[in-house]
Amino acid sequence: MEIQQLTAIASQVRRDILRMVAGANSGHPGGSLGCADFLTVLYFEIMQHRPDAFTMDGNGEDLFFLSNGHISPVWYSILSRSGYFPTEELGTFRKLNARLQGHPSTDKKVPGVRMASGSLGQGLSVAIGAAQTKKLNNDPGTVFVLHGDGELQEGSTWEAAMSAAHHRLDNLICLVDINNQQADGPSRQILGFEPLADKWAAFGWHVQRVDGNDLAAVLAAFDAARALPDARPRVILCDTLMGKGVPFLETRDKNHFIRVDPPEWQQALAVLDQSQTAGAQA
Question: Which residues are registered as beta bridge partners of 186?
Fold first, then answer.
């Protein structure tokens, strides 16, 4: 796809996020909005996957695991917009007995979801198992997994990072959303993680750091990661802006889990509609 097409999809995903969270009056819009760009690139340009023929084993296709499951609104939108289930179902987000719960779960049998997430620090271990399975089965597919920056405070993540390098899993690409916000405040104040690129490199990974809200930069990073000749796992550190695309959310001190008044939701949607219109005319 052209960058303009990807931009239009990311804008639609942001509108979906706002409508879902507004409809439920709960959720995690800040991180979801920040991740809309690089997840759009991943699902609509990079991944080789079969939305219309979903299977849990994912043989012969690329796989994605969401470790920081609280940003489910962006993932549900991406899954729906790429064809895993009808977009009308997005309106059931966080509703009683609905499939699209606040944290993804496998018991709900949502197409595209292969792992329950929300208990942080588990996604990389699951992705490593999937990557090793593909190696054993001579399956050329790539395994992708997304973490939040605050999630890296979980020690299990670093045990898994060591394991991936030891097993030379060059079919594994880890994404880290660096928005410097978590539930209790700025991530760097809760438990500082810099120099993050040096840490991953020291664990034996190939590291790139990009602006996660720059679609062209993200696309180039994915292409570079997949083209590397050496047998190392890859990590792409994505610097993002929490609440990206909605000015009054971008500037809030705390927007990990928020509720806003209905007029503010309408204001936010109006901003995104204006951006979409301007992009279409460009």
Answer: 181
Radius of gyration of the chain (CA): 18
207-47-187 Cα angle (round to 5): 45
Q: What is the DSSP letter of 256?
A: S
Residue 256 has pLDDT above 70, yes or no: no
- pTM value surpassing 0.90: yes
Other Cβ atoms within 10 Å of 282 Cβ, number:
7
Q: State residue 280's pLDDT score.
A: 47
DSSP state of 275: H
Count CB-CB contacts under 10 A for residue 274.
10
Say if strands 206-211 and 234-239 run parallel, antiparallel, or are unpaired: parallel
Q: How many Cα atoms sit within 13 Å of 222 on the Cβ side? A: 24
What is the pLDDT, as a whole number, of residue 268? 77
Is 256:194 a contact under the CB 8 Å cutoff?
no
The pLDDT-based confidence of 277 (bands split at 50, 70, 90) is: low
Which pLDDT band holds residue 240 (cuts at 50, 70, 90)?
very high
Which residues have C-beta within 8 Å of that of residue 25, sequence separation ≥ 6? 259
Please say whether the dihedral angle defined by the alpha carbons of residues 92, 96, 101 and 102, taken in this order, is positive or negative.
positive
**Rounded Cα gap, residues 101 and 204, in angstroms:** 36
Q: What is the pLDDT of residue 130?
A: 98
Sign of CA dihedral 62, 88, 218, 199: negative
Distant-in-sequence contacts of 254-263, Cβ < 8 A, 24+ apart: 254/181, 254/185, 255/29, 255/30, 255/181, 256/28, 256/30, 256/31, 256/181, 256/182, 256/183, 257/26, 257/27, 257/28, 257/30, 257/70, 257/183, 258/29, 258/30, 259/25, 259/26, 260/22, 262/22
Q: What are phi and psi of 124, to 5 degrees?
A: -65, -40
> Taking a C-beta distance cutoff of 8 angstroms, is the pair 126, 115 a contact?
yes
